[in-house]
Amino acid sequence: MSLVETLCNRLAAKEPVSVIGGNTKAFLAGRLKDEPVSMREHTGIINYEPTELVLTAKSGTTLQEIESCLSEARQMLPFEPPRFGDQSTLGGVMASGLSGPRRMHLGSARDCVLGVRLINGLGQHLKFGGEVMKNVAGYDLSRLSVGAFGTLGILTEISVKVLPIPEKEQTQVLQCNQAEALDMLIQIGRRPYPVSAASWIGGALYIRLSGAASGVESAALAIGGDTLNDAGQFWSSLRDMTAPEFNPVGEWLWRISVAPTTPTNTLDAFCFDWAGGQRWITTPPNDLSPFELAARLGGHATCFARDRESGTGMQPLEPGILRLNQRVKEAMDPHGLINRGRLLEEAH
Amino acid sequence: METGQLVAALAAGVQSDRVLFREQDTAPYECDGLTMFKAKPKVVVLPETRDEVCHVLKTCKALGVPVVARGAGTGLSGGALPHADGVLLVMAKFSRILEIDEDARIARVEPGVRNLAISEAVSHLDLYYAPDPSSQIACSIGGNIAENSGGVHCLKYGLTVHNVLSVTVALDDGSIVTVGSDALDSAGYDLLALTIGSEGLLAVVLEVTVRLLPKPEEMRVVMAAFDDVTKAGDSVGNIIAAGIIPAGLEMMDGPAVAAVEDFVKAGYPLDAEALLLCEVDGTKEEVADELARVEAILKESGATMLRVATNEEERLLFWKGRKSAFPAVGRISPDYYCMDGTIPRKHLSLVLRRMREMSERYGLRCANVFHAGDGNLHPLILFDANDPDEVKRAEDFGAEILELSVEVGGTITGEHGVGIEKINEMCVQFSSDELTQFHTVKAAFDPTGILNPGKAVPTLNRCAEFGKMHIHHGQMPHPELERF
């Protein structure tokens, strides 16, 4: 019996089921209550045609396999997914909904999803969306599943939009403080420059330009600063949070998602990405004040601490939104069987 | 329920001149852009405040009366078709632009604001709102949210769902929530993605925050003619394979070109079997580079004629032809029926060939406009609505096109929505378990089912009936589907 059939049968028999991909993000969004089943064996690229700009793969396929296949056709996943180990799977990437630096330019993981197959809480294997760019038949349950940490259904197949690798990339570095960096990005954002990433860390603003060589070069001249030599390494260390700042000893790491123009005097971050939309702070262990801070700023906080022992580390939801979240969960998994302990259930 | 009773209950919380119920007052609202379907609503309400909207919802929920929200009424799938026993909630008076934040590059608008009005309001800041459905001069942003509208620049700039940061909605019980935020993502499930494209079945839109983009420094368009549709289709694949994502990539077939040229005089070559418009945008340097590469690829792909618009006036004229395709076809036929399937682009020539066969079989002409970059096909079936037999043939022809779209791995609707029009074809695209899942998600928002009932997702009974109606050549279509 295939893994998918086994999972369907277990859910149909009202047995709780938890799933993981490469298990590289177990520290996020709560802890699973039940012994998880790995989706790794459910692997393989099902369909990939470069000129259609669509790739469909089973959820257990590793990011490595997908990216090496894409790069042969000089294409890429547009949202530059972070990876915290070489076993990261497409299913895990979508379940966690994390996006990398290029998110500000080409959209998020959710934006790139075109369709999914998933097993709902009744053990039914269902297909939503499709393999085409434009599809408005039925509710968008594909994009709803992104970032749900598997709690709305077990993702089995995912179709994503892919894009060509830019002809040229160049990163400009400008020494400045964080407030100056945000001001500069407001000005730059008003111009049609091909900015594909904009991040501030360690007293410098890094602006990556991507596209046709001529456009990149002219924008680099206009923006100024110095050209960064090992830019690829810089952006991947930011994407995967391998830079030392992201691994503070004895402190907790938090991601704060806010409006990109949020002033620095309200939020003291050691780094921002997405032109200010994603900020990183640290707190002493067990300090949950980032939730209040983020709420006050109209955003939300996520705890990235690996040594957190209780709670989901996810922003508590306001009552009206919480009620809708719970009802949507009930609609997809009426008996509450899938990925117990993750995302919603231990909120607060 | 008596009309008088309903009117009285509504008027308790809505200024009385905003509640219409006499036949001469409700008649103008009997259909949206899909005029084949008509129904007079029992009552039309034109609220001007949030309190009024919430009062209508609470009242209707208590009385079990259906509520259909309507924006500008330009939709092409009958999504805003009134319910004969219900209230039509016309959001046209929510037409204010509430805030423009040029630093954050966002605009906060009410749902009745027209799509194009947003771009016009920020044009002096060199910003614009990217999604541009052909009806953008008239369609409202609230309706765009309901349908997840696209346009001719989707491949590069995305759909409505990619360009909206948050939506404030009224729920069935009259409570108000905001999904999404000014941040790029939100905590919990992505209810914003779920709300966009939900065709007014989950909530009523009260306010929308959209992302604005800097206007490209330069836009250039090249027109290419082909003597063969397959070559034109292949040229699109060749452009993308070369790593170029054009801002716009549109195709028209011979009959569409003929109708348009006669109407607009855009300078389209009348002997073309297929015409391609390819727009590139960006900084001056980027555009010059990409344009040269696109021209070379089109030539290699067998274009019989290539013309680059030499100035802005000519660029707009090239586009005017494409954007006028629907009215142009309206001039050569008493009526036309616009379809909206999306297909994997590689199947384009197969689909066009099969459609030509259908055209002959049904005895109806068909012109095609095609968002070639993203595979969204708009066949226009020409017919005469005064001839009941032609109406029937047009509907059957359309249904067969949609089923063909599903058969080749596409979808029945790329951007117009299911509404009432394609509700039967939903039974072809989705299994009964999938449709049931849609219904339970709907119930999570609207347990009593007062919001736009009967649209977007068919009941299983309806599918069973439809299955019986559509037995071709003694065979059930898609025999693998469960029937009831």
Structure commentary:
The complex is a heterodimer of chains A (348) and B (484). Helices cover 27% and strands 24% of the residues of chain A. Chain A is α+β, with helices and mostly antiparallel strands and 348 residues long. In chain A, the strands form 4 sheets. In chain A, strands 13-10-12-11-15-16-14-17 form an 8-stranded antiparallel beta sheet. In chain A, strand 3 and strand 4 (54-58) form a beta hairpin. The model of chain A has no long low-confidence stretch (mean pLDDT 95). Among the domains of chain B are: 3-90, Uridine Diphospho-n-acetylenolpyruvylglucosamine Reductase, domain 2 (2-Layer Sandwich), CATH 3.30.43; 102-214, 2-Layer Sandwich (Uridine Diphospho-n-acetylenolpyruvylglucosamine Reductase, domain 3), CATH 3.30.465; 218-328, Alpha-Beta Plaits, CATH 3.30.70. Chain B has helices spanning 3-11, 23-26, 50-63, 115-122, 141-147, 154-157, 191-195, 229-241, 254-264, 284-300, 312-323, 325-332, 348-362, 388-407, 426-429, 432-445, 460-469, and strands spanning 19-20, 43-45, 67-70, 87-90, 97-101, 106-109, 127-128, 164-170, 176-180, 204-211, 213-214, 218-226, 248-253, 274-282, 305-308, 335-338, 366-371, 376-383. In chain B, the strands form 4 sheets. Chain B has a 7-stranded antiparallel beta sheet, with helices on both faces. A 5-stranded antiparallel beta sheet of chain B has the order 5-6-10-8-9. In chain B, helix 13 (348-362) packs antiparallel against helix 14 (388-407). The longest helix of chain B has 20 residues, at 388-407. Chain B is globular, with a radius of gyration of 23 Å. Chain B starts with a helix and ends in a 15-residue tail after the last helix. Residues 468-484 of chain B have low confidence and may be disordered.
